[in-house]
Amino acid sequence: PDTARSGPSTFMKASAQSRQMALRPALYSRILDDRSLTAAAEVAADIGYDGLEVMGREPHLPAETTVETARTLRDHFDELGLAVPCIYTSTGGYVGRPDEERETELDALEPFLELAAVLDCPIVKHGVGGPPEHRADDADYEVAAEWLGRAADRAAEHGRQVGLEIHAGTLTESAEGTAKLIDMTDRENVVAIHDAGNMYIAESDFGARSVEVLGDRLAHLHVKDLAPVEDETLPGAFTTGTPSGERTFQHRHLGEGAVDHAELFAALAEMGFDGYATDECAVPQEGPDGDEQVARKEYDALSESLARARGN
Known about the structure:
- The protein is an alpha/beta fold.
- Helix content is 41%, strand content 21%.
């Protein structure tokens, strides 16, 4: 895809020395899904996270959440000093489905857009589905772009952005595929959510090149670590399709797996990226406070990685 859309190379040439990365750590509320959203926010703020990416389902933020409840939540987040950079929903999935199901997915997005406006949350994660990028054709992208454009138009009515997560097994499993779809959709409020862990599974580049390809399409990050394993019975192990066939991976703590974020963070620092990196660690939790222990360990690792990228 054309990477001249105010991409990082422009920033790097013009003012790399004068810019400072403002990438702030956020926590995915799913890590604390045994707690209420208010309690999860309190834990995240106490640890030191700057943001809380909210899971768009029970027990945190289901579509049925009222505007009044959302206002109360926003007041609570403000008191804690927490931003809500993204609402993570499972809405979307347009390729290979009949129109009535596509319309249902559009309608399912609507309440989250309204809640995002109340929560002062800029991005609502919304997917297009489809076959994996390595098996997709132009027709798949055309369908996805048409319906994603409709979703973006609805989001624009609420002043929100639609976030496309880079995810293995979809049309957006690489920076190139994601940039292609965003450009085909031709809406300013469609943005990319970088996910190095998913890109590792999809065998796509998640380092400096991915940042350059995405350019100013990049608005948000998901961060997690994992490693390939042979034994699918290990805690936190899962088997999924990749371009090389079925493979088994195990969730690991950040910095303890095979997904090295150092080059990615360095590239973001060089371009002066301003946004949030949401930790999505899915390592199995142990004990009554296992969720908080995971969140604290991830915060320490993420903060250290970001500091190194800034040269601190």
